[in-house]
């Protein structure tokens, strides 16, 4: 029996490297596991591509439908973020660092979900608990994911466990300068030149079911907002196009890593509800508002939205 390990749709670096890491751990424990992702290699986001190349990692296999398969989920547990056919698959484990979603199973399974900044941090603990040595290339991927998810420790999601994992994984991966590694990833992640606006919206994007309302939230992490100054209208129009596909609300977080805040683009059936969720007022010209200190979708954006929708 093969266990297909997959992360969420529009995979980020944590989703990709966690699939690789958990599959490697399961294989080391005598199980047959295969790392998968909901993306083609050509469509993988620039940051993840850089990480795979830097550490010589083989990209997970594309899997857009998991009907009838035995699967392990990493970095998510929401059905809306899974591959087609997830309801007809046999889910045997979940490794995550987000809120528990709406995936259900017919039997008890292994769930390792911790309030840390990255699934890579959880996996690092799992390797130690199992007494399995992490391969150098896998450690490099997990290290990169933690730096990315915690925005080099600037995100409010970052914990002491994440910092400890980085200290351990950098030794295994042979990385001396994690700041330089992060900046190389940020350079790739924030590259927008020549990329269609809709692709940028979906670069790091998730859909959520909020009390029966489909709500989408994308995030672009940027060195500064000037990088998207010339395409702001295109991004807004792309958000409107995405919303028109059956969504109540679409948010796009334009996160300035240096200033440590987010210009939040809002397209919604109920703008007042969103303004109330973040105690702000949209600029009518840009249909956005600046939120100082907002760095994390998981900890600062989604919880506010869930509260506003009465979840």
What this model shows, in words?
There is one protein chain. With 311 residues, the protein is an alpha/beta fold. It has 2 domains: 2-187, Alpha-Beta Complex (inorganic pyrophosphatase (n-terminal core)); 197-308, DHHA2 domain (Diaminopimelate Epimerase, Chain A, domain 1, Roll), CATH 3.10.310. It is 37% helix and 23% strand. It contains 10 helices and 11 strands. It has helices at 13-28, 46-55, 119-130, 136-149, 160-173, 178-189, 197-201, 232-243, 271-278, 297-308, and strands spanning 2-9, 32-38, 61-62, 70-74, 90-96, 110-113, 205-210, 213-222, 249-256, 261-268, 288-292. The chain has a 6-stranded parallel sheet with strand order 3-2-1-4-5-6. Strand 7 and strand 8 (213-222) form a beta hairpin. Helix 3 (119-130) packs antiparallel against helix 4 and helix 9 crosses helix 10 (297-308). The longest helix has 16 residues, at 13-28. The chain is globular, with a radius of gyration of 19 Å. The model has no long low-confidence stretch (mean pLDDT 96).
